[in-house]
Amino acid sequence: MMEFYELGSYKEKIIQAMAGCSEITSLVSPAYCFDLPYMNGLAPTGENFICIDSFIAKAGSKARKEVGVNIWLMFHRDNLNLSAEERETFQSQGFCGNSLDIAVQAVGRLLNGSKDFGIGSLTPIPENPAVSFIPDTEDNEYCGKLLSYTCTDFMNDFRKVF
User: Fold this and answer.
1) What is d(CA 129, CA 146) in angstroms, rounded to the nearest whole number?
2) Domain residues for 77?
3) Quick one: which of 76, 86, 78 has its CA closest to 135?
4) How far apart are CA 86 and CA 17, in angstroms?
5) Is the pTM of this model over 0.85?
6) Mapping DSSP to helix (H, G, I), strand (E, B) and coil, where does residue 75 land?
7) Please, are residues 52 and 15 in contact by the beta-carbon 8 Å criterion?
């Protein structure tokens, strides 16, 4: 029986993983990583922030389901450019682009193929896994990327067993 435990569990695990990733926390404070898709008023103006939501993408089997995760990375326009020192530091770690590009790459390194969630690996969706967008925020000074993932998990809620 599906009890939807994984909807909150996946988000909590992703937020914890991001909080432990120095590349991400140097660009977005862990205090501005939210487990909901609503954007307006979440972070003070000028701060970068991340919103995460999860959903059941497919439940056609009695044994397995597909859990989907959307991650919105929102960066204020004043925070997109890196200083020469920051750029050099990130380039030495194999990153490139502006701060939003680097955050996308860091999330990808952290989550793509991760087996810390369901019985499968967390995988970018096959079509349009990273999409640019301008979020509908109060000041319209943000740009962002939407990263979409899927993961196979058991239909039953086995957290009670282990």
Assistant:
1) 8
2) 5-160
3) 76
4) 22
5) yes
6) strand
7) yes
Mean pLDDT by 10 residues, the chain (162 residues): 79 94 96 85 85 88 83 95 97 98 97 84 93 79 94 64 40
Phi and psi at 134, nearest 5°, equal: -110, 110
DSSP string, 20-42: T-HHHHTTS-GGGEESSS--TTS
**Domain count of the chain?**
1
Q: Any idea what the CATH number is for the domain that residue 153 is in?
A: 3.30.2000
Q: According to the model, what pLDDT value does residue 39 have?
A: 72
CA distance 50 to 145: 10
CB 134 within 8 A of CB 143: yes
CA angle 57, 122, 64 (to 5 degrees): 50
Give CA separation, 7 vs 36, 47, 53, 67, 102, in Å: 11, 26, 8, 8, 27
Q: How far apart are CA 10 and CA 23, in angstroms?
A: 21
Quote the tokens at residue 49: 């922030």
